[in-house]
Amino acid sequence: MAKTVPVAKYLFQRLRELNCHSVHGVPGDFFLRALDHIRPAGLNWIGNANELCAGYAADGYARAGHSIAARQFGSGPKVGALFTTYGVGELSAINAVAGSYAESIPVVHLVGTPSQKTWQASSAARPVHHTLGDGRMDVYTEMAERITCAQTKFHKYRRVEDAVQAYDETLQECVSRSKPVYVSIPVDMLEAPVPLELLAKPLQLTAKGETGSVEDDLARNIAERIRTARAPLLIVDGLSYPYDLLAEVNALADMIPTACFGSAMGAVDSGAKHWLGTLSGPTEYFDSADVVLIAGPMLSDTNTAAWTAIPPTEDRVLFNLASVEMAGIVHQVPGKTVLQRLLRELSSNLPTAVPLPARQPIKNLSVHTEITQDVFWSTMSSLLKPDDTVLLANGTPLIGGRDTEFPLRTQVVASSIWCSIGQMLPAAQGISLAKRDLGLPGRTILFEGDGSFQVTCQALSDIIRCKLDVTIFIVNNAGYTYERWLNGMQAEYNDVPAWRYTEVAKVFGAPSDYPVLAVTVRTMTELVNLLAQESIHDGKGLKIVDVVMDAEDVPEKAKAGLRRAGEALRTLM
Amino acid sequence: MAKTVPVAKYLFQRLRELNCHSVHGVPGDFFLRALDHIRPAGLNWIGNANELCAGYAADGYARAGHSIAARQFGSGPKVGALFTTYGVGELSAINAVAGSYAESIPVVHLVGTPSQKTWQASSAARPVHHTLGDGRMDVYTEMAERITCAQTKFHKYRRVEDAVQAYDETLQECVSRSKPVYVSIPVDMLEAPVPLELLAKPLQLTAKGETGSVEDDLARNIAERIRTARAPLLIVDGLSYPYDLLAEVNALADMIPTACFGSAMGAVDSGAKHWLGTLSGPTEYFDSADVVLIAGPMLSDTNTAAWTAIPPTEDRVLFNLASVEMAGIVHQVPGKTVLQRLLRELSSNLPTAVPLPARQPIKNLSVHTEITQDVFWSTMSSLLKPDDTVLLANGTPLIGGRDTEFPLRTQVVASSIWCSIGQMLPAAQGISLAKRDLGLPGRTILFEGDGSFQVTCQALSDIIRCKLDVTIFIVNNAGYTYERWLNGMQAEYNDVPAWRYTEVAKVFGAPSDYPVLAVTVRTMTELVNLLAQESIHDGKGLKIVDVVMDAEDVPEKAKAGLRRAGEALRTLM
C-alpha cells in the first residue's frame, strides 16, 4: 500500500519547503485539528492575539526575506503564512492580506472552513456559525479573489490528489508573482490521506525558459540611452525589495546617479558612488534627467510627492517583476534579467561621469531641551548598524525616516501605497521571528506612532509571548500629527489618549526571564544619555523607548508638502 | 438664492434623524474635513483606537435600541454609524459589518474615498494610496456589496441632489431591512452644497400599506392550530431583538409554553406564566410539541444544538421580519403584524392549559474555595437588576449565561451565528454610549473571556476615553477553553498569555476623575465578598473583575454537547 500523509501535514510541509518555519493565526474550530500537524511538519504555530496582527506579521515574515542581509547570509523565507477560521477570522485579516497584495508580498492565507457536506447544502434554513445566515457560503472567497493572485478551494475538488496539486500551483503563483494567495480547506478534508509521492515532487519555482534575445536587445537599447544621456538617473522604488532587485540597483548605483523613493529607503547603500539620497519631490537633477530608470516601481502618490517626481513616459524605463516598460511600450520580460544584462552592457562601457550635487552632512547629536522631529531622526542614524531591519510606521516616522542615514545592508520597511495605520508593530513581530527562525543577522527596530501603537497594541503581547528581540521607539506626540497638518491642527478627532507605554509590557505578561527595557525620554539630554548606554544597542529582548514630542511638530522638510496636501483637501470644493 | 447645507452635514443630520447621536470610527485623510461638521449637526465623533472596534461598537450602539427598556422609556437609536477611510479603514472594519449583516443589525457604514477625478482616472500608472496599485478602485465596494443590503456610491452621481436622494433611500433600506448599508463619499464631494429643502423632507420609515386580510387569515389559522394542539410551543430566537418582537413574545409567553434559544436570552421575562427557560437542546416537552412558533428565527447550529432543537417543517411557524413561513409555505407579510393579530385571536379564546415542567430553582450563593463555572453563572443572577444590558462573549460566557437568571427587561447580547471572538468589549462600549446618549436606563455588564479581551483590548481605551459606565467580568481561564473541549485540551495553541487585567485601565490612561474599580477574585469567598460591596453594583464608571477559573472548567450542562461537537470534529474523516 502506498504511503500517505494527511492533507494538513501536506499543507505545512509545502510551506516548510518555501523556507517558511512559522504559521501565524488565531485558532478556530474549523481547523483546530490541523494544528496538531504543525510541529510534526517542522513548523511553529504562532497564536496571535488577533487575526489582523497575524496577517501583518505574516506579511512581515515574508519581508524578512527581502533584506540584503538575507542574500548574504543564506535564504530568507519565500512566503509568509497565515491560518484563520472561515468568515470571522479571514475577514478580520483581510486588510492585511490586501496590503500584501498592494505591496507585492507573497503570503499564503489558509482558511479552515465548514465541512464539504455543509458547502454542498449551503442552507439558509440550517445556517452554520460564521456564515451570513442566508446560505451564501462563497461570499468570503469572492472577497478574497479580489485581493489574492490565485486561490485553491479544497471543497471544489472530489479527489484530494487534485486539490493538493491545485494547492501546489497556487503556492507557485504566490512565489512567482509575489502576491498573496488564498487556500480554503473544509474541516473534514484536513485528515484526508494524500499519497506521499505527491509531496516528494518539489514545487516548481523557477521561471519559464527565456528567449534571451529580447532581454539583450532591450538592455542594449537602454544602455545606449544611458550612454548618450545628458543626465541619466536611476530611481529605486519600493517594489525593488520584493522583486529581488537590490543586488542590481546597488551595482547600478556605482555607475549612474541613483536616488530612491521613500518606500525603498535602505535598498541602496548610502556609500554607493553615485548615491543622491531619498527623493521627497523633484530636485534640480531630477528635473534635468533625460533618461530615468525606475526599479520596482510603486509610483504611489505618497511615495512620489503626488506624482510630481515621476518623469514623463517617454523618458523613463520601468523595471517590473515580469515586464519592462520603455518609453511607454511594455515588453513581457523579467525586470531583473534586463537589469542584469544592462549591468553587463554598462560595465564594458561606462557612461560619462555626471556632476553630482553635494550630499548633506549628518547632523551632530544635539542636547537641546526638547526632542524635535528634526533632530530626532538624524540622531537615530547613530543607533543603526549594518544588517538592521528598520520599520517606519505611517505618520511622522515615515516622513522623518528620510532624515535618517541608513548603514550598509539596512532593510527599511516603509509602506508607501497601502499605508495602513497599525501595520508595523505586528510586522516587526513577523520580521523578528523570521530572523530567529532562519538565523538572519541584524536587529529589528521599529519607529512607531502612538496612534499606530494603539491600533494593534496586542502585537506587543505576541512579541512577548514569543520572547522576540524587538526595539521600539514610540513617537509619543498625543495623536495623529500627520493628519493634524492636513486638517484640524487642534481638533479633538486628531487626539489619541495618553497611554503609559512603558508599562504595557508588564501588563501584557512579560515573564521575568525575558529582558525588557522600558523608558521614557522627554529631552535630548535623556535621549543622548540613553543612546550612550550599552543596553539600548544590543537588540536583545524587548526595548520600548517612549519618546515624548510636541503634538504639532513634524520634520521641517516635510512641512511644505504637508501644507500643500492639506490645502488640496480644503480646496477640492 | 436657495439655502444649502454641505453634503457632510447632510449625512450626519440624517443619522441624527434616526436617533443616532454618535458616529464611531478612525479618522482618515479622505474624510477629515467631514468631521468638522459632526458637532454642528448635533452628533459626537467617537475616535476609536481601531476600525474593528469602531465597527463592533456601531453594531452595539444599534443593539441598544432593541432593549425592552428602550421601548418603555423612549426610543432607542434606529441605526449605528461607522465612518472609516477608503481601503485600509473599511477593510479593517469589514468583519464587524458582516457580523451586523449576519445578525440583522442596522449599521450605516460611511467611507471617505479619493476624489471623483481619481475615480474617473482609476489609474494603475498613478496609483493613489490605500488602493491596490493596479487601478481597480471598485474592489472594496464589491466586497461591501456582499455584506450590506444597500449601497450609495456618491462618485457615481453627477448631481449631488441625486446622490443624497440615493443616500436617503439607502438609510431607509437600512432601517426597514434591519441590515447594514454602505455609503462611499469622495473627498471632494464632502462640502458640495445640497439644497436645504431636501433635508426638510423626512425619511420614509413606515412600511408600505398592508392588505390586512392575508395577515388576519394567517393569524386565524395559526390560532386554530394552537387551540387544537396537544402541546403548543413558542421558541423565541435571537432575531426577535432586531425585529422588535419582544412585546409580542412576552404577551404570548403568558398564553402558551415558551422557551428561547441562547441568542434570545432575556427577551422573555422569566416571570412569564408559561416560561420554560433557555433551550440547550431538545427537551421532553420540545419533543412532544405538535405546533412550534419560532419568533425571529436565526436557527444557527450553535444556537439550536446543531439543529437538533429545530422542529420539523410541517409543525412550525416562523415569524421573520417581512415574511411568515407556515408548514413550509412562505407568506410575504410582516411577522410582527401576524404576531399581533395572533395575540388578538388568542386573547379572545385562550388555548387549553398545558402541563409545564417544574422550573429549576436558582442555586444559592456558595463559598466553596475555587470559582467553578457552574457556581459562577448562577451566582451572577444575584448581581443583575431590571433594565441591565448583559453581553455574553463567545466561549464559556455564551454557554454559562444559560445558567444565569435574568431579571425583568434584561437585554442579553449573545452572538449566536456570527460568533466572532472579540466582538463584545467594543459592543459594550457602543451600548453604554447609546444608553448615555439617549438616556436609556440600566447598566452595561459584560462577561468576557481572556482570549476575547486580548482580541480587541483597545476598546477598553475607547471606554475610558469616553468615560463610559461599563462593568466587566473577565473569565480568566488561561485560554480558549471552549476550543479546548473541541480539540487539544492541553494544547499550547489553546493557551493565551497571562495579562494583568486589573492594571490595563491604568496603562490605557484612565484619568483620576473617572472611577475605576479593578479587582481579582480567585475564590468564592472573594467573589461573594465583592458582591456584598455596594461599589460593585452602582454601574458607575469602569469596573473590571478578573475572575480566575480553571483552564479546563466549563458548565456541567454544556459538557455533553461540547464532547459531541469535539467528537464530530474528530470523526469527520
Description:
The structure is a homodimer of 573-residue chains. With 573 residues, chain A is an alpha/beta fold. In chain A, helix 1 packs parallel to helix 7. Chain A is built from 21 helices and 21 strands. The first copy, chain A, is globular, with a radius of gyration of 24 Å. In chain A, strand 4, helix 4 and strand 5 form a beta-alpha-beta unit. Chain A folds into three domains: 197 residues, Thiamin diphosphate (ThDP)-binding fold, Pyr/PP domains (Rossmann fold, 3-Layer(aba) Sandwich); 135 residues, TPP-binding domain (Rossmann fold, 3-Layer(aba) Sandwich), CATH 3.40.50; 199 residues, Rossmann fold (3-Layer(aba) Sandwich), CATH 3.40.50.970. At the A-B interface, helix 4, helix 6, helix 17, helix 19 and helix 21 of A face helix 4, helix 6, helix 17, helix 19 and helix 21 of B.
Helix/strand layout:
The structure is a homodimer of 573-residue chains.
Chain A lengths: L3 E3 H11 L4 E4 L18 E4 L3 H13 L4 H6 L6 E6 L2 H15 L4 E7 L2 H6 L17 H7 L4 E4 L6 H18 L3 E6 L6 E3 H5 L12 H16 L3 E5 L9 H7 L5 E3 L14 E4 L5 H5 L2 E5 L20 E4 L4 E3 L2 E3 L3 H13 L25 H7 L9 E4 L3 H5 L10 E3 L10 H15 L5 E6 H6 L2 H8 L4 E7 L4 H6 L17 H4 L8 E6 L2 H9 L9 E7 L7 H16 L2
Parallel strand pairs in A: 2-3, 2-4, 4-5, 5-7, 6-7, 9-10, 9-12, 10-11, 12-13, 16-17, 16-18, 18-19, 19-21, 20-21
Antiparallel strand pairs in A: 1-8, 13-14, 14-15
Helix pairs in contact in A: 1-7, 2-4, 2-15, 9-12, 10-12
